[in-house]
Amino acid sequence: MRTTGTGPDDAHGRADSARRRAAARRRRGVRSLGFHALVLVVTVVILYPAAWMLMSAFKPSSDIVGNINLIPESFTLDNFAKAMGGIGGVSFWTFFGNSMLLAVLSVVGVALSSAVAAYAFARIQFPGRGMFFAVMIGTLLLPFHVVLIPQYILFNNLGMVNTFLPLLIGKFLAADAFFVFLMVQFMRGLPRELDEAARIDGCGHWRTFSSIVLPLLRPAVITSSIFAFIWSWNDFLGPLLYLKKPDLYPLPVALRLYVDQTSVSDYGAQMAMAVLALVPVMLFFILFQRYIVDGVSTQGLKG
Fold first, then answer.
1. Span 216-238, mean pLDDT?
2. E-strand spans in the chain?
């Protein structure tokens, strides 16, 4: 008669195996705790400037500089009243309207011109297509500061300085190679059989683009629009160079008006306006963030 292994050796083996599993669980728990602690520390470091700005908007101006406390000793809403009143005879809503106008027109220009240019590179065979595409990609490696002076001289000679045209004309001429590249890579993932079927039905390039390709390009267009809006809304250097009148300033440039090196600076109103300027971007991102994930996850970056 055979007996099952229920002797002392088997019991000791099971106990040893249980101890190893328990030790492994403890090690995984320690590693998980350490990872979450590190993520928490990094999150606090990243979000602390935003939290300090938000809390400083409720501090008196005299308590902002030289005071490292995050929580205000005394809350005040005067900073928001000053920010809404504007500065230099220009109201907050003028600055806000300028920023919104530039951002919306940038979105429209980027969405239209980049989609058309991307269709040409991805779907139309023409002489020098590869060379032109390579040159366009090469502009991504060109620092903005290299072309700063030539662009300013060009726009100044054309009489466009002190207008919104230098900030917008490139958006409508597909000058942002990143967005064109994003849409080209997305179009390359679309079946060419759709184009062939459209040509059989008698569609030209424009009808094929508007009726077939553009609806399928929606994730890439929305992703490009989100980035174009945020980049235009946060742009400081461009408006600072080309706009001279305060009533043309967008919010990023208007913020510097509150800091005066020769007299008293109103840091409280500056922090309040910074918070107000951040709200539209946050709302825009929260409403459309899922489209960013869709645009990246649906072959938008595949080649």
1. 89
2. none
| Distances, alpha carbon 61 to alpha carbons 30, 88, 258, in Å | 45, 19, 11
Q: What is the pTM of this model?
A: 0.80
Express each pLDDT in 39-76 by its tens digit. 999 988 888 888 888 888 888 877 787 777 778 778 88
The dihedral through the CA atoms of 47, 53, 59, 60 has a sign that is: positive
DSSP per residue, 93-144 = HHHHHHHHHHHHHHHHHHHHHHHHHHHHHHH---TTHHHHHHHHHHGGGS-G
Interior CA angle at 206 toward 295 and 119, to 5°?
40
Residue type, 226: I
Q: Which two tokens stand for residue 254?
A: 């208007």
Report whether 94 contacts 247 (CB < 8 A).
yes
Best CA proximity match to 173, nearest among 227, 123, 243, 116 = 116
**Residue 254 contacts residue 87 (beta carbons within 8 Å):** yes
All residues at 6 or more sequence positions from 108 whose CB lies less than 8 Å from its CB, including other chains: 171
Summarize pLDDT for 95-143 with one digit per residue, the tens: 999 999 999 999 999 999 999 999 999 888 888 888 999 998 888 888 8
User: Which residue has tokens 């967008």?
Assistant: 250
Tokens encoding 204: 């030209």
Task: Report residue 173 as tokens.
Answer: 């001429």
| Tokens of residue 247, six digits | 């009533």
- What pLDDT, on a 0 to 100 scale, did the predictor assign at position 111? 92
The answer to whether the CB of 185 falls within 8 A of the CB of 299 is yes
**Residues linked to residue 90 through DSSP beta bridges, in sequence order:** 87
Question: 3-state class of 90 per DSSP?
Answer: strand
Rounded Cα distance between 290 and 300, Å, is 14
| Residues 98/248, Cβ–Cβ less than 8 Å | yes
